[in-house]
Amino acid sequence: MRILVTGGAGFIGSAVIRRLIGETPHHVLNIDKLTYAASEDALVCVDQDPRYSFRRVDICDQEAIGQALRDFQPDAVMHLAAESHVDRSIDGPKDFLQTNAVGTLSLLEAARGYLSERDEAARAAFRFHHISTDEVFGALALDDPPFSDATPYDPRSPYSASKAAADHLVRAWGHTYGLPTLISNCTNNYGPYHFPEKLIPLMIIKALNGEPLPVYGRGDNVRDWLYVDDHAEALIAVVERGRVGETYCIGGRAEHTNLDIVTRIAQLVDELAAPLPDRRPRTDLISFVTDRPGHDFRYAMDISKIEQELGWTPSWTLKDGLRQTVVWYLANATWWQPLRDRYSGGRLGVSKEPAAADA
Description:
Helix content is 43%, strand content 16%. By secondary structure, it is of the alpha/beta class. The chain is globular and about 70 Å long.
């Protein structure tokens, strides 16, 4: 296949491209605006491969996207480009609506125009795979069953509302215009090249430096965690074998409270890095701060559909994936330290790091 990936220099997008180039025969065109959270370094291992190409384009630029489609002539689009940090969406919701909703609309229209120029066989074989989030479904209580593709939408933040809008647009373009669409909704990801304002990398870096580890509220919010390479494998299964018009829920079956995640990170950094100067355990660095507005309590996914239909199941346990992630961040300060320096200096659109973080 020839696959156009939007947001391919981002955390999940780069993992997808590394897997596409490294483990499949597919050709990839990476479309990315290269915003603050993008990392060209995450693609160094593939950027010389003849099956990989890159074009710097804003997905809101419908004309440029249309030209990229005509030039590359993809069999599929994997749409990952998005603004994704909830705290940022609370501070600046317009940017999230512009990228996540208007950008998706632009991409859908460009794809529709591209397919109008293709023959019937190419139109039938084409796939538009929109990658979304579990947050569009709202929040769960502890005893609620996990989200499924039948769960009603109930977004609670500007971020999740913008992704819900994008999901609805994708379904509408499938029903109205016959665009061959698929949607996947996934739980919290973690792993290498995760931008250092997100919960897990932020806590690793703070623990390494002996800084306070701030946790929202009481730290009892529950998330289902999925190692990013598992997610990449699932996304490729969806674009290769998924049924047009279907939604696939993706998760790790690894529900843990934020406090548990931060505690595990502190303990792993104690084990794998030099001790603090005063020799105290890094769990002593954990503190609790005022909860953020509208903080969803719990997310979890019923992944039985993708397991049964596509044969995908997560292979990384949280224990192994979290250790692998901590090891990677400890070994790759040359990647995250410049990002953190710019971020803390206010050159990435905010003046300072958030008091706490959630993925």
